User: What shape does this take?
Amino acid sequence: MKKKFGIDIGYHKAWRAIQKVVACIRGTPEENYQILPSYLHMMVRKNSGTYTSTKRCGQNRFGYMFFAPVASVADSENNEAYIWFFGEMRKAVQVRRELVFLSDRNQSIANGIRKVFPKTHHGICLYHFEKNLKQRHAKATVINLFQSAARSYKREDFNQLMSQLKSVDKKTYNYIMEEPPERWARSWFPRRCYAMLTTNMVESMNSVLLKGREMPILRMLDFIQETLGEWFYERRKKVFNLDSMLFRINSKVIEFIVDLKKRTCNCLKFQLDELSCPHAIAAINKRYLQKSDYCSNWYSNETWLKTYERHVNTMGDQKS
Ligand SMILES: [Zn+2]
Assistant: This one.
C-alpha cells in the first residue's frame, strides 16, 4: 500500500476495508440469505423446468439448498444432508428405469440412495476405487489389471484378467471383490452406463465451480448460472457446426432454426408448404446444395409436365 499509494495502513485495518468493499459489491452474507427466496423464485421464472428448494435448520438457520437441473449447496456432507438431497433430486428428476448413480464409496451417499431410490442402480466410480487401491499400496501391475478388467466389455475377458490379478495379489483381489462387480465392472453392469465409469465429469465441474464457493450465496448462484450458460452456449454452437444440416438463420432480430434433414424451419412455411422458405434457402446456399432437392415433388418440373402432358382436345365442329 505504501509503495503503490503512499498510505500507511495496518494489516487489520486493510483487511476490514477489503471486507467492507466486498460487502458493498456483493452484499453481506445476511443480505444474501434474505434475498435468496425471491432470487430462487426469479430463477424458476427465467428457466422453466428448474426446480428449487431450501431447508432451514435449527433456529431458522439456512441448512441446504437444491436447484436442478443444476446443483445443490449444503452446509455439510452427512447422512441427513444426503437423504434430503436425494429426496429433492427425486422430486426434480423422478424415478426412471434407466437412471443410474455413480459416486465414490462415501457411506452417506450410499445410504441416501438406498433410502430414496431403493431400486436404482448405484455404481462406484473407477477413479475413486483405484484411489482406494493405491492407498492400500497395491502395485501398478495390479491396478492396471483391475482397470482393464473393469473396462472389459466381455465377461470372459473380465474373468481372465481378474484371475490373473488374483494370482498376483490375492489380498487386493479379495478386497476388490468385497464390492460386487455389478457396481464397478462394465461387463457386469446391470444397466447402460454409456462409457461413464468415473465421476470425472463431476469432479472437473467441481473444480471450476470451486471459485464460486468463496462468494456469498447469491453471487455464487450467479457465478454457477453464468458458467453453465457459457458452457451450454458453446456446446450448442458446436452441435450447429458439427451437424451440417442444422442452421441458425438470423433475419433482423428474429432467429430461425432450419433443419434441412427434417425439412423444418420454425417459421413453419418449410414444413407446411413443403417449399423452402427464405431461411431454408439461406441454409441451402450456405452448404451449396440444390434448392430443388428441398421442395416437394409436387413442385418439380416432372410433376408439372406430367400434370399437363395430355392434350385437351376441343370438340371441333359438331356437325362433322
Ligand atoms: Zn423459415
